[in-house]
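dude i think i finally got it to work??
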Amino acid sequence: MSDAIEQPEDFFLARFDLTEAALGRILDTIQTRGVDEADLFFEYRVTEEIGLEEGLVTRAARSISQGVGVRAVAGEKTGYAHADDISPASLQTAADRARYIAAEGGRSAAVAVQKARPAGRDLYPVRVPPTETPLADKIALLQRIDAVARAADPRIGKVMASVASEHRIILTVNSEGRMVGDVRPLHRLHVTCIAADPRRPGERQSGSHGGGGRAEFAFFLEDDRAAGYAREAARQALLNLEAVDAPAGAMDVVLGPGWPGILLHEAVGHGLEGDFNRKGTSAFSGRIGERVASPLCTVVDDGTIPGRRGSLNVDDEGTPTQRTVLIENGILRGYLQDRLNARLMGVAPTGNGRRESYAHHPLPRMTNTFLLAGETPPEEILRSVRRGLYAVAFGGGQVDITSGKFVFSASEAYLIEDGRVTAPVKGATLIGNGPDVLTRVSLVGTDLALDEGVGTCGKDGQSVPVGVGLPTIRIDGVTVGGTQRA
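look at this
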């Protein structure tokens, strides 16, 4: 992290009049007989969002939140309490509540707290926090986006753009005496365009695009990146005006690179998280070492990619993130683990313990999850399909973790006819089963790409930023929902 930004350990200890010894005493009181581990999670967060619609600023919000969460774990039982008042008294009250929920009685064990910053880890060296960029600069960027989108075509009738910024400082202290913090910048820019065709009154279509990451505001200005988002959103809206109804039935599907990795994230990634597998509720439970996908498929979760939206120096338990191979050449190799589930499953944590805020306990979650590139040129993959669907972007979707069944709607898709990409289609949905879909992958492209940096993942009511990625792939025999018979 940048020297220009105060280290999180110093920030919290000085701001709230805390000491390593005082934190050690708090953890002492939690370490009763039956409590396996305990931790404290401090957070200070500044968020800012600016929205522009029809060339006018429609919202401008800034908020500051702070607090501490206290966790006590006894076996599989977790006691969790939190407070927005960071003081020794509030800490002690939260600690007592967490301990009583997890276990009662017994003796304390002395905890000596020491700083333990991971050496050499600085994945997002931001010197100016995102929330300190002048408001006028952000508004000027949104106005430029509005102008660029409208200039794309007179049929673009409405433009909505927003930029969200976050400066988050966290600190974890656990019953092993390890204190480690992180300073996390985050930017996200989003553009939506609505197009109307005067030849068809009442018909409107939308297109959306955006990007971001753990970077400074200048990220959006490099290579005219923000203007590119505007042009892409306008292009999608105009394309959808010309789209025909999607066919329905079983057919071969080609997924484009980048954002279509959201299907991998939802349909497969969640099923590889440790808690679901420890409890036996995932379709992948108990299958380590088994073939679960085509030999062409290697799936990786990597929280160490510099500047990416899903990357972290350390997770929300203070464990350094890492590159974890989940599926290797079709063979299931492991799961994503936080400290609790790793201990109960007798394996090492993988740096995937994540939480939305101090008010939430950590869960095993993905960071940046993607399928590695293969050896087939993407144009060859398209030429291999006689009749099918080419899905370039996805909107919403639903997944059942236990069964693996999923439904995803494509926001940009095309027909493939005799190996050529032809008419754009609308209303296409992909229906299938996560563990099954990877066994149907018959070709994997050379063009691995990660998404632009807009993903947010929900689980158990908690939302965290994530990244996804995919090369062009062919999946055989996928059920496509549409309005015309294939």
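The mean pLDDT is 93.
im so relieved honestly
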